[in-house]
Structures are given as C-alpha cells and as structure tokens.
Amino acid sequence: FNYFQLEFSLNSCSFGIKDIPALLGEKDVLKVLQLMPGVQKGNEGSAGFYVRGGGADQNLIILDDAPVYNAFHLFGFFSVFNGDALKSVELIKGGFPARYGGRLSSVLDMRMKEGNKEKIGVEAGIGIISSRLTIEGPISKNKSSFLISARRTYIDALIPIISAASNGMKVGYYFYDMNAKLNYDFGDKNKVFLSGYLGKDKFSFKREDFMTADQSFAGSLRWGNTTATARWNHLFNNRLFSNTSLIASDYKFLTTNEEKILSDVYSLKFYSGIRDYGFKYDLDYHPGIKHYVRGGLTSTYHLFTLQALTVKNTYVPTDNRDRKSTTYGVESAVYIEDDYKIFSLLKVNPGIRFTHFNTQGEDYFKLEPRLSASYNIKEDLAVKASYADMNQYIHLISNTGVGLPTDLWVPATKNVAPQNSKQWAAGMAKDIFKYDLAVTVEGYYKQMNHVLGFKEGASFLDVGTNSDPNGAESFNWEKNVTSGKGWSYGGELLVQRKFGKFSGWVGYTLSWTQLQFDSLNFGKIYYAKYDRRHDISVVGIYKLRKENTDTDEDGITISATWVYGTGNAITLPIASYNAPVHNPGSANPYNPYMGGGWNATEYTEKNGFRMAPYHRLDFGVQFHKTKKHGVRTIELSVYNAYNRKNPYFYYIDTNFNTGTSKLKQISLFPFIPSISYNFKFMKTKAKKIEKIGYEQ
Fold it and tell me: pTM of the prediction?
C-alpha cells in the first residue's frame, strides 16, 4: 500500500487519463492529478497547482530528470505535457524518498516513452483547437528506437474571425510543444537515452485608430520551456546498476509593450528566466531480497535572469534605459536510502539527503532526514506513517493574482534564506475485495519557514526613474519581498474502484493553510489565497465492450467528473472615502476642499473574503472502433454541463450618479461542447492490453 504516491496509466488500462472528459477535448495529465485528494487547482485561468497547502513553486516537476519551471499553456488552461508522448506519471505528496529534493510540497516525476523497437507506430488526434501527431519505431530493430511527438494549436487562425468585430482590436495566440527521444542498446550492460522537449506560447494584441487616427497600441506575452537529457544506464552485475545523466533546462518569459502617437514612440521590453545545467549519478543496489539500496549525487548550476529591461521614450529622450540583472546559484546534494523489509509485514524506508547551495559567496548546508514505514496488519489492511525534512533554494515570486506567467524565479541569498518544511503524515489503506474497492484515509501536518511574499504595493516590474536613467540601483527584488512562515494540515479520503466495467473514484480533502508575515496584515495570521476548506471530486467511467472479440478496444466509454471546492480567499475593498491632506497655506490646514484631498480605500483583512464556491460537471462519450490499420476513437464531450458561472475575479462597480457600489463577478467558461477524432495506427490488429490502473 504505497498510498503516499499516485501513479497513473496514460493509455489502455481499466481507466486512464484519456478516459476522463476535459476542456475542449484536450487530455491533460495535470488536470487529472488535480482530481485527487490533497491536490488542487487555482481558479480557472491560473497556472500552477497546489499540494497540501504548498505554493505553486513548491512542486518539483521533472520530465526525464529535467526540471520544468512553467508547466502550463494558455494561462493555465492546459499543461505542456502531451499525454501521447508519456510513458508514466508519478506524483509523490508525502513520505518523500531521499533521492528527491529541492522542493517542499510534491514531486511529479514523468517519463517519456522510449519508442517501439520492433515496428512503426503512429498516433494522431484532431480537436477543436489543436492537433497532435506521435510517431515511434525502430532505428535498428531490437537495438535502437525513436519517438517524435508534436502538438500545435490553430487558435491563431480562429481568433481573427472572432476579433474582427472587436472595434479595431486584433488578438493572436498559439502554442506548440514537441517531444523527442532516442535510445540505443550497446549490448546487455549499457543503454543510452537522449530526450528533449521544446514548447512555446505567444499571446499578442494590437489596436489601431482608437482615439485618433494616428495612435496605436500593441503588446505581447511570450514564454516557453526547453529541456534536454542524456542518460547512460550501466549494469555492473545482477545486483548493481547505475544511471549517469547530463541535464539542461531553460525557461524564458518576455513581455513587450509599444504605444505610438504621431511620431512619438514609447516601448518597453521585459525579460526574465532561469537556465539550468545539471549532472546526476544514481546507483541502485540489491544486496538481498530484504534490501533495495539507492544512493547518488547531483549538482545543478542555475543562471537567473532577474530582469532584462529596455525602455525607449521619444517623448522624453533622457528616459531611455537598457539594463540587465543576472545572478547564479549552484545546488548540490548527496543521498542514500534503503527500502528495508524487516519482516514480511513491516517495511521501512529510511534515508538522508545532504544539500549545499552556493550563490555570490554565500553557502548554505542542510541535512534532510526522511523516514517512512508501512505495516500490513492483515491482507486487506495496512497502516503507514512518514516524516520528511525538505529545503528549497529557489523561490518564485508572482507579480499578478491571476497566474499569468509574469513570475520571477530568484535564488536564496545571504538576505533571503531558503524555504524549509517539515511534514508528518499518517494513514491507513483498506481493500474491500467483495466490491473491488480500495479506501485510503490520510492525515498530515506541515510547517513551512522562510516563505516569500511581496510587500504591499511592491512589484519586480520596476522601470526606474528619470533621475536614474540607467536604473542600475533602482531594481532590487530583495527590498520588495518579505519572509514569513506557514502551516498546513488536514485529512484526505479516497475511495476508488480500479477494475470492471464501472470504475472511478471519490476524493475528499478537508484542509487549512495559514501564513504569517511580520510586515503583512499587521503581523496577524491569515489564510492563503489557495486555502480551501472542502475539496471534492467524483469521477465515474463506464465501459461498454463488445463480446467475442480479441481486443478490448471496441465499444463505448462513458465518463463524467464533478468537482466542488470552497472559494479562494481574496482581499476586497469595503469602504471608500475622501481624506484631507495637509496644506500649510490654507486658513484651515486640514480643509479638504481648499487644501485638496485624496481618495482612501479601506480593505478587509488580508484574504478576508471568500469567493463563491467552485463546482462544475463534465461529461464525455468515446466511440472506439478497430479498423484495418488501427483503432479509431471519436469523442464527444461537454465542459461545465450545467453552465455554472464560477468566479474568475471580482471587481467593484460604482454608479457615480447614485453613489452606490456593487460587487460584480467575472466568469470564464460557460457550457462548452467539443468533438475530437483520434486514430492509433498499428501494423497488426490491436491486441488485448493488460490492465494496469494506478496505485495510491
């Protein structure tokens, strides 16, 4: 009962990610993970996910050992991971093995397919907003193989039609991603794997001839990830093997803005990013049936581009600025762990990880003990407990509240300590064989230190001042952030049925997440914006299969998901009034009319208001048919079937004639139907595939 880990099958199994209905038919690994207890999404349109009260930056997302720093396309609506290219997806949210480190809340470990060494395989899909194609096959039969997978939207071809009537505003958007992998067997003892990922998003807008015929306004947002991994697997003997990896990862964000009035031009470019070069060496040793020992070392060089800013202003020629701020960090670790079966019913996994971080002459050394243990009380009942000490040497500070990719990755420094967490977890797992059910109950408590947040009114998008045109001293992100602590605790329940015609699960999470900063909210404890008291997900999948066939592909799959979550915590204004200012020249120095005044706004306590609860129902039907050259699937799906108007954000609408104000809500996705066509080409008729399912 390894129930602190979640492992999903991606393709053919009793139920998999591709069976579950999704927005516009785009199957999404991360969206399915957010249906599990302890894992939650932000509101619609926000990037990132949150695990057991941790921030979006506290999740280690790795693709073939390479870290991915922004895992979402389209402002958080879709993830960058094309399920057709993935072999396995494993989420660890507690009881972290010592081989993982660098984040506080979770590890999402994804492995790409290695390619078929015997025959060519092609899988393709056409949807409403994107199409995808995956090709795999042998380079040298039974020795080497390749995999190439690509996906691209054609939203940019559809948006101009929609925006043609938008009063001169032209909007464009597209994203693409590509995966590739090669592997080669050099005999029985050596294998080499080369894999890579490339993805990019571009959003642009332009408006001409508004206000005057000689004025225009344009801007863009661009971001993307690139990863590359070279891994050598060497077998020393039947008890010992190693993996040696060279890893590179690059994340970039660029925003541009340009305004023209007659011959005058104001333009701004802002660029930030993080680039990694890493080395990793792991040893796996099996001394006997009771031990499985792992050990290794890793080192990563981080290069942070904190701000590359260019400002040009022909209105004020001296206002032109061009500057760049970069820094580095070297993060290293050694670890050892042992899966030790003390006796047939008790297994423990002790481990220790020693980490080091160096940046600009500052060194941090941390020891991270880990321990998890499981005990099978009887065949169908087990209990487990764990403790993990984690450190995180890089921080993500967000400039917006809506999850746009305008985020800044920064290192720990001598003034900003690394984040730390201590997590205790315990639970039990029960199988009910009569009904093919598995039930798990878990509780956890996590304490976090040195969590970063922006000071009130601060921003890293700092364009400097006219008196300092180069802006060399005006930008210092350390002065704009504050450090605090947090707590998260709660309980999780998962009831799942893995096999049979009807499968699925019900997940429920009850949790609390609180933060405290000396310089925020008058030093008082407040709830995090992603604090969610209740989180419920219900997933059902029913498969109608034809009898007397040698494949389980033919038939109909009916699926539905329903989710409910307590609304996010936000800060809202509750009053507005005119306040006088001091005017020494007035007969009455505090006369608001003679001396002027300013509009003051009073707010709730930080995150003292709850948005409306979020809930929706999705429904899908898949029609599978085995053809001469493969399997065809047509899917009809509906997102938000009962058209729930879930809140995206709130604003205050003031009627100046009556002097009244109302709180109004903006919603994003109404009832959205979609259709997609998928085909998996195979040289031979589809054969029955073993059902794998997933384990928690």
Answer: 0.86
